[in-house]
Amino acid sequence: MLNWPYDSAVLVKWMRCTVVDRGGFERGQRKWAGLLGEPGFRGQGGGWSRSRPGVVHFFAFWESRTLYDSFMARSHDRLAASQSGTYRDIQVRLFDYRFDVKTGFQPRFGDADVVRVAHCTVHRERAEHFALMQEKVWNPAMAGSPGMLRGVFAEADGEREFLVLSMWNSAAERAKYRTERVERLALRAQTGADVAAIDGDVVDLEPSWTV
After folding, report:
1. Could you read off the pLDDT of 108-132 as tens digits, one per residue?
2. What does pTM read for this prediction?
3. Which domains does the chain have, with CATH numbers?
4. Alpha-carbon distance 205 to 143, whole Å?
5. DSSP readout, 56-76?
């Protein structure tokens, strides 16, 4: 198992696209096993949206932006070539790790069935409050929820964008957390005052896509 490098500026990459050739896309996905030989690569997983037909999400972790940029310049296009024409509307965003959601994060996906991703754009003057409430209100609630395994809170460099990524052992357990607690927690954290826009999804992980 790869160790999570707490002493470095960890980069979190979130990719989303719409697949138009499922068979070709899935065949091409096998080529991404080549990531394992890349300096600084720490793990990648992904799967299908539960609510948006044909949409896939991927989440990748790198030790630093420098090593990631080196990979993009050297190897990315070669690995990506086999999926050319199999998807459209790709969106890629990069975030810097700030802290764990729960403790002891590891960039692995093998024991998770579902990932919840929340992409939040926050009012500039409320950014630090939003981060504080994530740490003091939302994180303890998620950490105490049965079925929640681990997660990451990350921030886009120089932006007002945050990524909250949580891994769950089943969609049913995540749904219990959502219905029972989210409204009350949002009031306590003053989320409505902090957040200008939020975009999220629930992703059924595809085990064969884990690198």
Report:
1. 999 999 999 999 999 999 999 999 9
2. 0.90
3. 11-209 (3.30.70.100)
4. 20
5. EEEEEEES-HHHHHHHHHHTH
